[in-house]
Write a structure and sequence with these properties.
By secondary structure, this protein is mainly α. The longest helix is centred in the last third of the chain and has 27 residues.
């Protein structure tokens, strides 16, 4: 997916993948067979692949070169600590 982001920019691939991601996520509940569920999960996973290259590219565009590493670091920090903290809170 990084190639799509590099070639077409961030907005269009991100929007297309996000729409397909949402549709596949919604379709998971409609799947009557295991193979349909597996196919929808594969589509969700493939569409999620645009998130990291898209966000890193946006960080590089929006921040000064000396600050973009810090912005990417905070993004990566949040992507790891968010589920680690949020999952136990949601379950409790």
């Amino acid at each position: 997916m990084a190639g799509f982001v590099d070639r077409y920019g961030v907005k269009r691939p991100y929007a297309i993948c996000f729409a397909a991601w949402c549709l596949a996520s919604a379709a998971i509940g409609l799947m009557p067979t295991l193979w349909g569920l597996i196919l929808m999960r594969l589509i969700v996973g493939a569409m999620e692949a645009v998130v990291v290259p898209g966000d890193v590219s946006l960080d590089r565009q929006q921040f000064y070169p000396n600050d973009s590493g810090t912005a990417v670091g905070f993004y990566m920090l949040g992507s790891k600590f968010g589920p680690a903290i949020g999952a136990p809170l949601a379950a409790g």
